[in-house]
Amino acid sequence: MSLFACALVAHAQQNATELPPLPRPELTEQWEPVPPVVSVPASTGIPSDAVVLFDGSNLDAWESTDKKNATPRWKLDPAERSMTVVPKTGNLRTKASFGDVQIHLEWRSPAVIKKEGQGRGNSGVLIMGLYELQVLDSHENPTYANGQAGSIYKQFPPLVNASRIPGEWQTYDIVFIAPRFNADGSLASPARMTAIHNGVVVQHDTVLRGPTEYRGLPAYKAHAGKLPFTLQNHGGDLVSFRNIWVRDLSFPPPPPIPDLPPLPTHRLRKRNNSPKNTSLTMKHSNTKNTSATPNALSRRRFLQTAATATAAVAFGAPFISRSWAAAGAKSPYRNLVSANRKVRVACIGIGGRGYSNLSGIIDAGGEIAALCDVHFERGSRAFYGHPNVPRYRDFRQMLEEMDKKIDAVAISTPDHMHFPATLMAIERGKHVYVEKPLTHTIGEARVLKAATQKHGVVSQMGNQGHAKEGTRLTKEWIDAGVIGTVREIHSWTNRPGVPGRRPIWPQDVPWPTKDTEKTRYALSPDTLDWNLWLGVAPVRPYTHNLAPFDWRGFWDYGCGALGDMGCHIMDAAYWALNLSGDCKVSADAEGGSAVCGPKASTITYEFPARGSLPPIKYVWYDGGRKPVAPKELGADGKLSTGGTLYYGDKGIMYSPSDYSESVKLLPESKMKEFTKRPARTIRRIPKANQYREWLDAIQGGEHAPGSNIVDHAAGLTEFVSLGNLALRTGKPIQWDATRAVCTGMPEAQILINKNYRVY
C-alpha cells in the first residue's frame, strides 16, 4: 500500500468516532400503497387484469376501417384460434381506446413466399392508429432497416433481427407510453416504446419522432390521450394474428424528456447553403484560420502517403501478425487501454447503421465518450439516450477537443467520408472501427493500411460476417480440399433492387434537378449541415433523400451495390482463396453513368495462378441477376436472394446468405453423408461479436481483430473496388497490384486517387 493510501486509512480510523450515526432503516421503507395482486395462470399466460381483445372465438372487440362497411370481415380459424387478413376489407381497429398500454399479440406471415422486400408478409400494429410497429417477414428478406420486422416504421430499425422463418408464429410484447400535449397543443413529452420480439428486446424505451409517415418526416400534432389501435391490411398480405390482450398502464405520467442542453454556437453553426469548391485541402468549416490544420489532408500529402503505402504494400512493410500469444510475445499495438477500465469510444455517424454500431459497442463493454453527426435529427436517438455525452457536428473539432478523453473512434458515415475521418483518428493514435467498405477508393485503402501500420492502432472493418461460423467453415473446408480445387466462384445480391419491384435505393438515375424533382428539391432541413455532409465531395445542391440513404448509388458518395454488399458476400471467398494481386476485371452493366451506378451488373474477375493456387474466375451479380442454379440444388432450383456458389473439381459448396452465416455441400444427400468434418484450424469469435473482438485487442488481448485493416480489410476493399473500376471506365481493366494502376488506362487513375474539396 502506498504512503498516500496508508495516510487515508489512518485518517479514517482517527476520525471514525466523529461520524454521525446512521439513520434507522425504517426511514426508507415504504409500506403504502400496496401493489394489487395480478395472477398469471400457466394455462393461458394472460394476466388477470388484462383485457382480452381476441381469443379466436369472435371479432366482437373490433371494427373495420372500411368506410363502406364497418363490420370486420377478416377470416376466423376456430381450430387454431386465429384471424387472417382478407384482401380489400380494410384494417381492423379496436372499439376500445387506449393511452399508456401493454400489448401482447402473436402474428404469422404466410409460409409460402411469393414476394420479397416489403411485399412479404407486410402488416403493422398502429398504436393509437398513429405509431406503427412494423410486421414483416424479415427472415432472409433484405429491405430498408427501418422497415423490417420490429422497426418503428420509417423511424428506428430494431436493435436486432429476431425473426422466425415464414409460417411460424411470432410474438410481440409492447409497452407504449402515449405522448403528452400542453393546453396550447404543443408537445409536452413524446411517445416512447419498448418492444420485445420473440422474447428479444428490439426497441428499448425508444423516443418516437412523431406519428408514422410513409413520405416525409414525422411531426407531432395534438390528439386525444386515448385512441384505438389498428392491425394493418397491407395490400392483402395474408398475415394472421391470435392471442391479443392488453393491460392499461394509467400510472402517473412520466416526466417529460428534457430538451438537449444548448450547444456552443460554434458547434451548431448555421448551415452553409452555398458550399464552395475552392481547394484540395481539408480545413475546419467553422474556423477563421485559413491555414490547414495539423491533421488536414492536402492532395500533395495524400499522393505522397499513397506512394509510400503502395511501396510498403508491394515491397514488404512491417507486418502485425494476427496472433502473438503463441509466440510468447506481447501485443504489438500502441496506446492500449487497461483491462481495469472501459474503452472510451467516440462515434462519428450515429443514425441508422451508426446507431447499431454504437449499441453493439456498448453491449460489448465499451463506453461512449463523444457523439458526432452532421444531421442532429438523425442523431436524436443517440443524443437522447446519452444526454451527458458531448455532441458535435464536425468530427475534426471533436477529435481535437476530445483528444485526451477518447481511446478509439467508430466511423459510420457515408462511404466518401470514411477515409478523412479514419485517417485523422489514426494519426492521433486512436484505434478505429470503420464501416464497410473501408474506403471510397483503392488509393485511400492503401493509405489507411500504411497509416495503421505506422501508428500501431487496433482496427476493425464492420463486415460482421467475417466473425461468423460460416466464414470459418468455408476457409477450413476449402483448405482441406473438401470440394477439391476451386476454380470458379459465383456471388450475387438483390441490391440495389430487382426488376419489377421498388428498388432498395435508386441507381441508373440522373442527378435530381429542379425540373426533375420539383416536389423534392428544397433547402436542407435546419437539423442538417449540408456542407459538412458533402464533406470532401464536390459541391451539389441539397436534394431530398440523398441523405440519409439514397447516396449509396451515386459515385460521389457511395460505391453502388458492389460496395454496399461486396465486403459481406465476397469476404469468405477472398479470404479462403487469396483473391488478391494482379488480375483482369470486366463488367457487363445495364445503365449507369458518370454520376450514378447501373441498375444491374455482372462483373468477372480473372486471377492467374497465385503460388500453389491455380487460376480462378470469380463472377459477381447484382440488381436481380443471378448465376444459373446448379442441378445439384434440387427440384425447385431456387437460389437465395444473396449468396455464393463455390465450384471445385470434386463438388459444389453453397453459402445461401449475405453474411456467410452457414455453408453446405450440394446436393443435400452429399451434405448428409458429410459426417467426418475437417478439424477446426481457425479461432472462433465468442458469439461472433466483432465489437468485443476489437475491444479485446485494444485492451491488450492475444489476437488481432479478424477484419483489421492491415491483414484483411484493405485488401478486401481493393478486391471489391476493382469491380467498380471496370464499371466506371466501361472497359476491361488489367490490374497491376504492385504499381496500383490499370495497365494502359491512365484515365482510371482519378478513380484510384481522387480529388478532395475544402469544406
Description:
This protein is of the alpha+beta class and 759 residues long. The chain has three domains: 51-248, Exo-inulinase, domain 1 (Jelly Rolls), CATH 2.60.120; 299-467 and 689-715, NAD(P)-binding Rossmann-like Domain (Rossmann fold), CATH 3.40.50; 469-686, Dihydrodipicolinate Reductase, domain 2, CATH 3.30.360. The protein contains 15 helices and 32 strands. Strands 30-29-28-22-27-26-25-31-32 form a nine-stranded mixed β-sheet. Strands 1, 3, 4, 6, 9, 12, 13 and 15 form an eight-stranded antiparallel β-sheet that branches. α3 (353-363) links the parallel β16 (344-348) and β17 (367-372). α2 (299-315) packs across α7 (442-455). The longest helix is centred in the last third of the chain and has 21 residues, at 709-729. The chain is globular, with a radius of gyration of 28 Å. The protein starts with a helix and ends in a 7-residue tail after the last helix. GO terms for molecular function: hydrolase activity; nucleotide binding. Residues 255-264 have a biased composition (Pro residues).
What is the gist of this entry?
This protein is of the alpha+beta class and 759 residues long. The protein has 15 helices and 32 strands. The strands form six sheets. A nine-stranded mixed beta sheet has the order 30-29-28-22-27-26-25-31-32. Strands 1, 3, 4, 6, 9, 12, 13 and 15 form an eight-stranded antiparallel beta sheet that branches.
